[in-house]
Amino acid sequence: MGNKKIKYILIVILIIIVAGMIIWRQNKQKEEFSVIPTSTSTPTPTPTPTPNEIADWATYQKGEYGFEVKYPSDFVKAEWTDFEFTNIAGDFKGFFLVQFKIPRSYIKSEFYASDIRIEVDDENICEKLNQFSDVDESLTTKIPLAINKNIFTKKEKKDVNPGVSYDKIIYYTKNKEKCYSITLFNIISTTGIEALVDQNKIGEEQNQIEKEKKNFIEFLEQKMLPTFKFLE
Q: 59: helix, coil or strand?
């Protein structure tokens, strides 16, 4: 009778230990998950250009939309108001868009083109951008950036069409009930690359495009975006 009682006590103790280990593991997983950065993380500050680096740049100012930005004077500028095509959040009609096309002289790969687009929409577009599913594993959460005096959220969105892929690096912020998004819009001719046939050349082109895209991301974050400011 005494042995049975001891066995019973040992079984109860074992159950308590196992249950405690399960609870500890669950709490540990919650802690690990909670440290994943989100849009409420402390924004990462980015470098700013020196006056000499942008001394010969032009200034684009749009008073009715409340902002200005500097850009290299050889970039080709075009703008639309109430443009009738899909905006950055997937809606059919946008509000305002200015595009700065990057000249071919900046780009080595013949299968790659890039431009920078600034879009102004209603503030709910920022909420839709927050809901986009990220496609790059390194961007599974939104990345907050402190650029000059503004806090932007950075996300990546990729679209693939037959023969062409679109890689959009989006920086967006809200101000006075409007959503401002600045996008590095990368266009890659997958058909052109595949037509090379030679696997070594295909690999070289893909590497070159990734290198150029990285350089333009750094240019936008460290040179052009720091000149963006809201007008009083």
A: strand
With a CB cutoff of 8 Å and minimum separation 6, the contacts of 185 are 114, 115, 116, 117, 166, 168
Cα–Cα distance measured from residue 138 to residue 142, given in angstroms and rounded to the nearest whole number: 10
The tens digit of pLDDT for each residue in 76-121 reads 999 987 776 677 777 767 789 999 999 999 999 999 999 999 999 9
φ, ψ (nearest 5 deg) of residue 163: 85, -15
Residue type at 163 in one-letter notation:
G
Q: What tokens does 96 get?
A: 């305002």
Domain 44-230 part of CATH 3.40.1000: yes
Please state, in angstroms and rounded to a whole number, the distance separating the CA atoms of residues 149 and 226. Answer: 8
Domains of the chain, residue spans: 1-35, 44-230
| Of 39-43, 58-62, 151-155, highest mean pLDDT | 58-62
